[in-house]
Specification:
GO cellular component, one term: plasma membrane
Protein name: Carbohydrate ABC transporter permease
Strand content: under 5%
Number of domains: 2
CATH superfamily of the largest domain: MetI-like
Shape: globular
Oligomer: single chain
Radius of gyration: 24 Å
CATH class of the largest domain: Mainly Alpha
Largest sheet: none
Organism: Fusicatenibacter faecihominis
Keywords: Cell membrane, Membrane, Transmembrane, Transmembrane helix, Transport
Main location: membrane
Structural class: mainly alpha
Number of strands: 0
Length: about 300
Amino acid sequence: MKKKVMKESTAWQIGAHTVMIIGSLLAILPFILLVIASFTDNQTALVNGYSFTPEKWSLEAYQYIASEWATIGRAYLMTILVTVIGTALSLVITSTFAFVVSNDKLPGHKILMFLCIFTMLFNGGLVASYYVYSNIFHIKNTIWALIVPTFLMSPFNVVLVKNYFSNSISPSILEAARMDGAGVFAVFTKIVMPLSVPIMATVGLMTAIGYWNDWTNGLYYLTENGGSQYYTIQLVLNRINENINFLANNSDVAAKAAQQLPSTTMRMAIAVIGILPIMCAYPFFQKYFVKGITLGGVKE
């Protein structure tokens, strides 16, 4: 009987590992192909398509990016700025709101939680949102157009943080702090937040990825005439995909505009540059990510 159980367990482990290996390869191989394509000669990519073993290698795409760093570099720095500011503000708003609704004794906390959940199910739509942000809040063609809409506070993140506060932080610790004379702000900053590193890292990583990869806010709220100075790297990449002459028309070296652009491989090179920071940061947040999702997704 024991041998049979051991054989079944071994078979399950082999099957599970096989599935995970295949899934990992399916996730990793596109990134490898992306990097290889960015180092492929443009003409070779046009004729033969993308390949893991290109016939001819080239640094032309990265050389062109270096020559156009006045445009691409500004977009890259703007992406970093928007991601840092947006993520910091989002964590502050999400954590404070979640801390409030996690207090079951607070009058009206159920109404606040209902309003939060309601926005996960229904919204006013793109037209109404665009009118409010553009004509009431007047954020169009400003840096706030990249920060406020969509990502500043997510109801899903609020639920994760709220559940973490309720299930992972003992009420007795908070009560002891209050008996020692700590106020609400002191309890939140000195006890709750230091104990909430896993969920804060999880929510922060998801929010940062959202800001880093976002191009729709710029598409909706930034115009080429009034807001091009706020273009992020993803928006620049999207513009390139729509019109490969975008960089040439906005370049400091306009004399080279007639020169043929390495259009195919340049898209790949900009994509590589765009995803590098996230790929480098994720390994440091992975341990918090798994723990935060597990504990934050549990409700007693």
